[in-house]
């Protein structure tokens, strides 16, 4: 048998429920999930994962990357004959930073490249949303930047803007905290209004008022969450649960994040939970642009693809 060719795909992390707009606003981040897919002909799959929380990643056909590849082939009425996957990720798994969204989109992109499926943008989004119901995350991961759902009742009507890369998102990641989702199943009217306020602010962060905070979800996520919204420094813009949680994001313009970070860490510590803190910047590049190069990239390098973006590795409590 001849050597099977490999293809590659890259998708950014995302933070949904951005700024407390649950289910309707998401931001792409400068961490990525990267996969290498090599075809097989024996119907089997092999999965190697390089990155944090690897114990949470299935190594069988339930893996989201593998599921997405198989679904894309079935969409074109093609048979899945197996594949080997290498997954390189700097996106923490299961904390609210869009690792599942990235895995699904990466699988779809890789399948399209490897098997010549001819998927267009509409097909990518439609198929991704079969597995991943966080539509704001899917759109942000595909497009990059900041994406919001415009209004209730129109799930496909989204607005988008580029985001200043001078903003910083600190993410406090609890170790061993419950992974039970804390965000509501469906957005409320206030979430749509908050999303629009964030859209206006992020499009013109020096000429628009900072959106009013919403502490509700944060209060349910950690003890004393309401205290996080008290002013800590002029640079702190918002604190909110990342996606379905349990990580907490702190959006900062400039310096002065440390008091807010400590307040979140202390809230978790009161429940006996230790934390680490990652630091991210917005990414205005999504899967669409990342994967616009030719399908086979012989210059693909894994260097740096799994390096965590931690500012503080662990907090002693």
Task: Describe the structure in your own words.
- The structure is a single chain.
- This protein is an alpha+beta fold and 317 residues long.
- It has a single domain (1-292, 306-317), classed as Ribosomal Protein S5, domain 2, CATH 3.30.230.
- It contains eight helices and eleven strands.
- It has helices at 64-75, 99-115, 121-131, 135-143, 189-203, 216-221, 258-269, 287-290; strands at 6-16, 25-39, 45-50, 83-89, 146-149, 158-161, 167-175, 236-241, 248-253, 274-280, 310-312.
- Strands 1, 2, 3, 4, 5 and 6 form a six-stranded mixed beta sheet that branches. Strands 8-9-7-10-11 form a five-stranded antiparallel beta sheet.
- Strand 1 and strand 2 form a beta hairpin.
- 48% of the residues are buried.
- Mean pLDDT is 85; it is low at 311-317.
CATH architecture: 2-Layer Sandwich
What's the structural domain tally? 1
Structural class comes to alpha+beta
| Overall spatial form | globular
Low confidence ranges:
311-317
Roughly what fraction of the amino acids lie in strands? 15-25%
Q: What is the overall pLDDT average?
A: 85
Termini distance?
57 Å
Main sheet, how many strands, which sense, barrel? Answer: 6 strands, mixed
Quickly count the helices.
8
The beta-strand count equals: 11
Helix fraction? 25-40%
Order of helices and strands: EEEHEHHHEEEHHEEHEHE
So what's the CATH class?
Alpha Beta
Integer-rounded radius of gyration = 19 Å
Could you tell me the CATH topology label. Ribosomal Protein S5, domain 2
């Amino acid at each position: 048998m001849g050597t099977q060719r490999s293809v590659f795909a890259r998708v950014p992390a995302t933070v949904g429920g951005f700024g407390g707009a649950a289910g309707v606003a998401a931001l792409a981040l400068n961490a990525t999930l990267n996969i290498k897919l090599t075809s097989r002909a024996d119907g089997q799959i092999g999965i190697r994962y390089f990155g944090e929380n690897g114990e949470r990643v299935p190594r069988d056909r339930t893996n989201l990357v593998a599921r997405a590849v198989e679904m894309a082939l079935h969409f074109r009425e093609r048979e899945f004959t197996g594949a080997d996957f290498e997954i390189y990720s700097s996106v923490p798994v299961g904390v609210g930073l869009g690792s599942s969204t990235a895995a699904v989109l990466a699988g779809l992109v890789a399948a399209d490249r490897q098997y010549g499926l001819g998927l267009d943008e509409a097909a990518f989004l439609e198929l991704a949303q079969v597995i991943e119901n966080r539509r704001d995350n899917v759109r942000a991961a595909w497009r990059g930047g900041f994406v919001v759902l415009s209004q209730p009742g129109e799930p496909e009507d989204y607005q988008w803007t580029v985001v200043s890369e001078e903003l910083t998102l600190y993410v406090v990641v609890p170790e061993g905290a419950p992974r039970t989702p804390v965000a509501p199943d469906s957005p409320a009217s206030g979430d749509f209004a908050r999303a629009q306020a964030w859209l206006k602010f992020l499009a013109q962060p020096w000429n628009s008022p900072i959106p009013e905070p919403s502490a509700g979800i944060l209060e349910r996520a950690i003890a004393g969450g309401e205290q996080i919204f008290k002013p800590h420094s002029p640079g702190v813009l918002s604190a909110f649960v990342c996606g379905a949680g349990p990580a907490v994001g702190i959006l900062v313009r400039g310096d002065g994040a440390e008091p807010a970070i400590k307040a979140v860490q202390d809230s978790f510590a009161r429940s006996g939970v230790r934390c680490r803190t990652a630091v991210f910047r917005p990414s205005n590049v999504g899967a669409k642009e990342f994967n616009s190069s030719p399908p086979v990239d012989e210059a693909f390098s894994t260097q740096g693809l799994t390096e965590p973006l931690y500012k503080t590795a662990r907090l002693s409590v």
